[in-house]
Amino acid sequence: MAAQQKLRGRQAHTPGPTFLSYTPNGRKLITVGLDNPIRVFSSGSDAEPVNIDDCMDSNTAIVATNTFFVSGSEDGTVYKYSLETNSQDTLLTRCSAVRDLALSPDGNWVAVASDDLVVKVVNTQDMNRVLYLRDQPKAAKHVAFDHSGTYLAVSCTDGRIYIYSLSSEEPELVKTVDGMIKSLEPDSEASSKVLWHPDGRAFATPTATRDIQVMSRSDWQRQRAFKTGHTGDISAAAWSPNGAFLATTAADQKLCLWDTKTQALIKTYEDVRATILALVWHPTENILSYTTSDGELYIHTNFVPTEHTKLLENALQSAPFIHDPLDETSGNAQRKLVNGAKNTLVMREAREGTPDSVDDILGLDAMSDIEGDDFVVDDDGAGYADVVNGLGKRTNGHLDSISGTSKRRAYGSHSFQPQIHESFQPGSTPWQGNRRYLCLNLTGFVWTVSQETHHTVTVEFYDREAHRDFHFTDPFLYDKACLNDNGTLFSSQPSGKSPAMIYYRPHETWTTRTDWRTQLPVGESVNAVALSESYVVVTTSANYVRVFTLFGVPFRVYRQKSSPTVTCAAWRDYVLTIGNGPVGGDGTCRLLYTIENVKRDEVCQSEDVVALTPGAQLQSVFFSDNGDPHIYDSRGVLLTLLHWRTPSQARWVPLLDTRLLSRLASGTKQESYWPVAVAQNKFHCIILKGADKNPYFPRSILSEFEFQIPVSGPPSGKGEGDDGEVEREQSDQQRIEEVFVRSSVMHALQSDTISVTRATPSQRHALAALEGNVNKSLLQLLALECLAGEEHGMKALEIVGLLRDDGSGKILGMAEKVADRYHMDVLREKIRELAERRLVGLDVDDELE
Amino acid sequence: MELVTVIPRQRLEGLNLLGGPTPALTPPHRATLPLWLALLLKRQRRANISPPPWLHPTSLSAILTFETDHAGAAFSPPPRLPPGTTSSPPFLPSSTVDAAADALPYHWLELGEILLEAAPDDFEDPDAVRRLMRDLRECRMAKLRAGVEVLEAGGGFKMNGIGGMEVSEGRAFIGGVIDGLRKIGASREQQRRDKEREERENGYTATAGDDYDDDEMDM
After folding, report:
1. What would the pLDDT profile of A598-620 be if each residue is shown by its tens digit?
2. I need a surface site. Which of A414, A485, A590, A700 has the fewest CB within 10 A?
């Protein structure tokens, strides 16, 4: 590169506020200012600009496409000018003094910020089509379309940003962001403009402290900030077209260039003679042009220093997130697609390299004259979308990757790779902003805040009396935690030279507290940890299951048979580990679980299948307070494991299908349930509204749901008159049937538990109560059948056969009484016969009979 | 006995109270306790009260729109009784978290006021709830007063869905009106009787009485 040529200002307008815009193809540069000719410069030529004379004075904003441009003036008119004829075309709208304009990426809509309270969005083809955005209480100072054209950010003079979604017919306010921008006068030189990052997932604004703060669009969390160090208010800023750089300038007459990735200052230019009011990057070349308050235009070639120009040629760079959701590798982050693209940005890069890509055929800037009709224009100063995506289509960075993509790719790709289930830590959430929950259960919750170099971990309890909340500074960056009544377990990943570490901290002891740390062998990272009342369990990337006692004595180490490991859970002496097993028909791995009693060294279930429906993912695994394993899948079904202590007898039984909850029956609510625990025969969860996937701060309260086994569908339709009566009976019967199945399951769970433990009287009492429930529901069913008439006698007798009798014949006696009450004499006789057969032991289950 | 749902912050064994045993409290499991005990625990910061669903701003505003726009002169209906119950509204748990969200129970005004005073921090938006409660109360009191217009000797006014406190509030006013009407009616009655007696004494027994009897026969 040649040495930087002398920067020469061009007197574009009379001294005063001057603004500029490039056409998206970068061929023309248009400036507006106080005096009336609008000047159209041609890029790369020193020739005199073309003047457009028939226009208003004191223009304050300009946006351009390849074929036309739109300018707004202090007198409140917004005119459209043709670039082909270089003349005034039509009046688009009229309002009070125009402050800013923004053009949607497809060039069809222009948003007008004026001193009116309403922001108008006018169609550039048909000025009668106008959308009105009315939610801001004061005048708007800036407007900015995001790169998909779906969102419009309005920086209001009240110091808030109003973000509208324009995807629907009627614009809708999606978010009000408070505390990001400064409250400014409408005509002040300082800027509060929203700068959408070209990757579409974040935007940045100048703040009151003269920094540039980035905020993500998905969860409205503050991300990294550029500490600009300007001594005056920031008057303009812009992302480079690929988002790799940020240029800022302020009233202190300095022009700074920043690296997006590291937020480091690359270069400061101090040869600025007046405050820069607008700056734009050339869409493709290393040129930054700006206009000052003196009416001068500067075209700054080779703006990015030579050693950094490589970055400028790179593909789209991602916005500076603190924890980029796409780069997330730890724990239960967004699931990565194994076969498909890892993330959308990379996918786009790959496409550029394919031999017959459209870009190759047409060339990167082929759209300049060939198809320069309604091409992408973006005048928010944040960079140009056409470099981002050669076809003017919006990038799919804002979409979640869907597994469908991966499947399609799997067929086309040369080598088949099975889809494995990512490992996760039950009860934790991924990073949202700089916070995440490490563990959330019925004892309390552990959360951590990222502070750049270290984390701060806070442990809070529900029971304020029994435990005291604590928090500490964490230099090891713990990323997994478990919490129970005895203590807290943390684990950190290996970083640099230091290996992965386990840290256990008991809450209270009768001696001094004996917390301990253990380091794992080098190269082994922690996949999941679990903490029971007597053991600490760690599953690692080397497929080892490591069991420690509560005082750090290594107790057992064994290799997990199914790999890679997914997660683990523990309750007393029992350890449940889950791993990826053989590949199923749909290309995903079947999950296999193993339950063993580590104290007695007995395997209860060995490599049995975790029954999930196709496409469903495991969301959480935990033991209930009674010690029964439960899983919750991504379809919202809670399942428990019946007879899990007897080898190969285990069975997954659904306890609750949250999609069938009555609160969702109206169909208007959209909510999901984030599993926390099962205790006291209830499902404890956090209700998440809308499309939220994980709970966030402040901590939402726990909700509890009774179990409801999906036995039968809801009664069909709404009946009127006589039908209503029949339906009520039907739903009554369904309800009782569900009670019967549920109490049978609970009875089976409880009797299993009692058979292996020394049962307390209350447990035995609960078991008897459950048996009573089973019999009661059966007797109710019997009564319903008797009521239905003589012809239901067979079914009634069958129900009687299901009654659980303790041998005394008391229950059958009650059934007899029921039959008697409805005057079913035949049935009564049959029941008596049955009772007699049972009494002499004839009615036993015998397959040989 | 009004029951409310609390989220305890401390353990507490079950208590054997006159009204029956209370459940053992283990945080963070919800438990249903008598109102007085819940308020006591709340004051001692040992528990948080979770307000019943009908005290949520969205349900209150839905009820308010129903009252103002759809119900006409009637009140919004009381919560539906669960099937197969024998007890009536004041003795049903209508203020726990499982209560219906779309109906005001019998003690809505008292409970709302008490909970707002004792546990405003457990509400999401106590001010909105307060405002909506006020709106609802005024709207319903207006209906109650409007109903007085039809209250004459044989008049009737449907008060389904009205709360206990509202009855008490209206009692003095309605009672006064009815009593006044009765007094007016009583003097008129007295006059009529006097007149009849005079007529009887004067010997015109036939006409008036006969006509009256005939009318009754026709009916």
Report:
1. 999 999 999 999 998 888 899 99
2. A414
Name the DSSP class of A283: S
User: What residue of B is the nearest CA neighbor of A705?
Assistant: B98
Quick one: closest CA in A to B28, which residue?
A462
Distance from the A679 Cα atom to the nearest Cα atom in chain B, whole angstroms: 9
Q: What is the mean pLDDT of chain A?
A: 82
B159 vs B73: CA distance, rounded Å: 10
Q: What is the per-residue pLDDT across A705-715, written as a single tens digit (0 to 9) for each?
A: 999 999 887 65
Query: Does the interface predicted TM-score (ipTM) exceed 0.90?
Result: no
Do residues A748 and A621 share a domain? Answer: no
A846: buried, middle or exposed (CB in 10 Å: 19+, 13-18, 0-12)? exposed
Residue A401 counted as domain residue: yes
Min Cα separation B52/chain A (Å): 13
Cβ distance A464 to B10 less than 8 Å, yes or no, reads yes
The residue of chain B with its CA nearest to that of A467 is B10
The answer to whether residue A358 sits within a structural domain is yes
How many domains is chain A built from?
4
| Residue B82 covered by a domain | yes
| Chain B interface mutation, best of A461, A464, A706, highest count of B Cβ atoms under 10 Å | A464
In a domain, B148, yes or no: yes
What pTM, to 2 d.p., does this model score? Answer: 0.67
Note whether A339 and A381 are same-domain residues: yes
Considering the domain architecture, whether residues A689 and A640 belong to the same structural domain is answered as yes
Question: What is the spatial distance between Cα B82 and Cα B77, in angstroms, rounded to a whole number?
Answer: 15
User: Residue A442, class by beta-carbon neighbours within 10 Å (0-12 exposed, 13-18 middle, 19+ buried)?
Assistant: buried
3-class SS of residue A231: coil
Given CB atoms, is B131 within the 8 Å cutoff of chain A? no
Of B11, B29, B46, the CB nearest to A680: B29
Nearest CA-CA partner of B97 in B198, B24, B6: B6
Task: Give residues with Cβ within 8 angstroms of A348, minimum separation 6.
Answer: A315, A316, A389, A395
- How many A×B Cβ pairs under 8 Å? 29
Give the domain range for residue B65.
Answer: 51-152
The Cα–Cα gap between B123 and B57 comes to: 9
Within a domain: residue B181?
Answer: no
CA gap A495, A499 in Å, rounded: 7
Q: How far is A645 from chain B (nearest CA, A)?
A: 28
Measure A535 CA to nearest chain B CA, in Å: 24
My answer on whether A339 and A460 are in the same domain is: no
Same domain, A662 and A741: no
Looking at per-residue confidence, does A424 or A310 come out higher? Answer: A424
Give the count of domains, chain B.
Answer: 1
Spell out which residues of chain A touch residue B26, defining contact as CB-CB under 8 Å.
463
Question: Smallest CA–CA separation between A242 and chain B, in Å?
Answer: 43
Query: Is A462 within 8 Å of B27 when comparing Cβ atoms?
Result: yes
CATH at B96? 1.20.58
Is A732 in the same domain as A758?
yes
Query: What CATH number has the domain bearing residue A453?
Result: 2.130.10
Question: Which residues of chain B have a CB within 8 Å of the CB of A463?
Answer: 9-11, 26-28
Cβ pair B27:A679 closer than 8 A: no
A150 lies in some domain: yes
State the average pLDDT over residues A633-659: 92
B50 touches A at CB < 8 Å: yes
Calculate mean pLDDT across residues A537-556. 92
Q: Please check whether residue B5 touches A, CB under 8 A.
A: no
A368 lies in which domain range?
326-419
Residues A80 and A154 in one domain: yes
**Cα nearest neighbour of A680 on chain B:** B29
pLDDT at A811 over 80: yes
User: Which among A384, A419, A454 is the end of a domain?
Assistant: A419
In a domain, A258, yes or no: no
Instruction: Report if residue B171 sits inside a domain.
Output: no
At position A499, the amino acid (one-letter code) is P
Q: Which of B27, B30, B50 sits opposite A463 (nearest CB)?
A: B27
Phi, psi of A50 (to 5 degrees): -80, 135
How many other C-beta atoms can be found within 10 angstroms of the C-beta atom of residue A653?
19
